[in-house]
Design a protein that fits this description.
134 residues, alpha+beta, OB fold (Dihydrolipoamide Acetyltransferase, E2P), 3-stranded antiparallel beta sheet, 3 strands, 12% strand, flat
Length: 134
């Protein structure tokens, strides 16, 4: 009976410890070990995330996610000025696009008697004016 109790206690302890040791990495986070030596251009990144030493990584870093999802994240020093500017640019929403003046897509109500064939988009039909000279 004592042997059965000891075995049950051992199984209980192992059952409680195994999941705790498997998840001890906090979600299997990838860490930057060094910074990129080159400036990262704005047109190749889509977003970024911060790496903090308090979360188990050796160095603080900014990890930029490239637009091409098959490429790895790019690591940068958060204290660099160009990194701060790139983060700010990614945080700012893009300016709203102006509608082309010659676009027929959004010009008032449709003409009576015309069946809507459906527009596939706004074609650039800007009118070019020739300057009238003397």
């Amino acid at each position: 009976m004592a042997q059965m109790m000891s075995l049950s206690l051992l199984v209980l302890v192992l059952a409680l410890c195994i999941p705790w040791t498997q998840g001890s990495d906090g979600g299997a986070q990838d860490c930057c070990l060094r910074y990129s030596q080159k400036k990262i251009p704005y047109n190749v990144v889509r977003s970024y995330r911060k790496q903090e030493p308090s979360l188990g990584c050796a160095i603080p870093a900014i990890l930029f996610s490239p637009k091409k999802r098959s490429l790895p994240e790019l690591c940068a020093d958060p204290n660099e000025g160009w990194v701060q500017r790139l983060m700010q640019r990614l945080d700012d929403p893009p300016a709203p696009r102006k509608q082309v003046q010659g676009c027929r897509k959004n010009r008032g109500a449709p003409k009576p008697g015309k069946k809507g064939k459906g527009s596939k988009g706004c074609k650039r039909t800007e009118l070019t004016q020739t300057p009238k000279g003397p």
